Amino acid sequence: MTGPPDQRLARTPTQPTDTVGLATGPVQVGSRTGRRSRMTSRRRRTLANLMFAAPGTVFLAILALYPMWILVQMSISDVTITNILGYWPLVGLDNFRAVFSDPVFKVVTLQTVAFVMIILVVTMVAGTAFALALKGNGRLARVTQTTMILVWTLPPVIVGSLWKFLLASDGIISASLVKLGLVSRPVPFLSQPITSLAAIMLVSLWVGIPFATLVIKSAMLDISQDVLDAAKADGASDLQIILLIVLPLIRPTLLILGVLSVVGAFKAFDFIYVMTSGGPGTSSSTIPFLGYLTAFQSYQFGHASAISVVAMIIVLALAVGYIIAIRNEEQAR
Predict the structure, then answer these.
(1) Residue ranges of the chain with pLDDT lower than 70?
(2) How many alpha carbons fall within 13 Å on the CB side of residue 38?
(3) Count of other CB atoms within 10 angstroms of residue 155
(4) What is the pLDDT of residue 264?
(5) Rounded to the nearest 5 degrees, what angle is found at the Cα of 289, between the Cα atoms of 288 and 295?
(6) Within its chain, how far is the Cα of 117 from the centroid?
(7) What is the pTM of this model?
(8) pLDDT score at 35
(9) Tens-digit pLDDT profile for residues 75-117
(10) I need a labelling partner for 283 at 20 to 30 A (CA). Which of 53, 94, 131, 245 fits?
(11) HSE (CB half, 13 Å, CA atoms) of 193?
């Protein structure tokens, strides 16, 4: 039934061999199969990533890119209340020329620059000071931090309404100043040009300083205590430790916080809308809010779109600065 062993071996199919007698056929087939499997796996992962990113991309295109395109189109067209639903005549850069030659826009631009710079400087300085004061873990520090978190998380509409009540001419603050004899009559903080923008700054700082304090304190906690102890052992004073060690080590965080503060101050809208509506006149308006007033009070949608495009370009430039700051911090790490 069965032949000798040498005959059975003779009938067994052999594999192709290379020069050293090793089988190569099935190995080549297996390597090709493995490469195909890896390519298929990568394609599947790429397809899965695209499927996950598709909904966000669609929503971004619908809710952000398309409105931006319409905004740019309106900024180079003559759009008013009479033709907003009809044909928009193309006017080129006339809207931008009218905006830049408008004395109101120039005054509001100066107000915006002053508003942003004051908020930036005060937020950074006060935030750093409070962070240093609250560096410990005592009971007072914990209570203060909890209060700051509560203030920071309050909705802007509620904060604006609260301060509008406090700063009214018949409000608590004005009445207290009269009773203390500091002023002879109630002060309309929100109704006079000289104090309306300052009142908006005060409320913005009241909300922004707690956020800055928490961010700076978290950055300080990342500094090794050994570094601070070594500086004290070398005879460095507390001021020298702060200026020469603490601040340089948290510089990337301060840079990012500064960019965020500038962006937040520049696009401030809620407090202005709730407390003063940009008035009296435009004395408490910023560039973005001036665009709102031009669109929905003067109904000059073309001019308002040009103002909004200018504001958008400024915000985009600040956003690029924010991205560069984050990238530099990651490289520093």
Answers:
(1) 1-39, 329-330, 332-333
(2) 5
(3) 9
(4) 86
(5) 95
(6) 17
(7) 0.77
(8) 63
(9) 999 998 888 888 999 998 999 999 999 999 999 999 999 999 9
(10) 94
(11) 7
Return the pLDDT at 28. Answer: 52
Structure tokens at 34: 């493995």
The confidence score (pLDDT) of residue 171 equals 87
Tell me if 179 sits within 8 A of 120, measured CB to CB: no
Structural contact between residues 160 and 203, judged by C-beta atoms closer than 8 angstroms: yes
Question: Which of 186-194's residues contact partners 24+ apart within 8 Å by CB, and which partners?
Answer: 190/164, 190/275, 190/276, 191/280, 192/280, 193/280, 193/281, 193/283, 193/284
Token pair in block for residue 138: 């005592």
Listed residue (252, 256, 257, 250) closest to 227, CA to CA: 250
**Is residue 289 within 8 Å of 272, Cβ to Cβ?**
yes
User: Can you give the pLDDT at residue 199?
Assistant: 93
H helices of the chain, in order, are 5-11, 25-60, 66-75, 94-100, 103-133, 139-153, 156-166, 172-179, 193-221, 225-233, 238-241, 247-249, 251-266, 270-275, 287-296, 301-332
DSSP, collapsed to helix, strand or coil, labels residue 145 as helix
Q: Which long-range contacts (CB under 8 A, 24 or more apart) does 209-212 make?
A: 209/122, 209/123, 209/126, 209/127, 209/130, 210/147, 210/148, 210/149, 210/151, 210/152, 211/127, 211/152, 212/123, 212/124, 212/126, 212/127, 212/128, 212/131, 212/257, 212/261
Alpha-carbon distance of 203 to 275, in angstroms, equals: 10
267: region left, alpha or beta (phi > 0 left; psi from -120 to 50 alpha): alpha
The CATH homologous superfamily of the domain defined by 96-332: MetI-like (1.10.3720.10)
Amino acid at 183: V
Dist. CA 149–CA 302, nearest whole Å: 41
CA–CA separation, 181 vs 78, rounded Å?
55
Burial class (CB in 10 A: 0-12, 13-18, 19+), 69: exposed
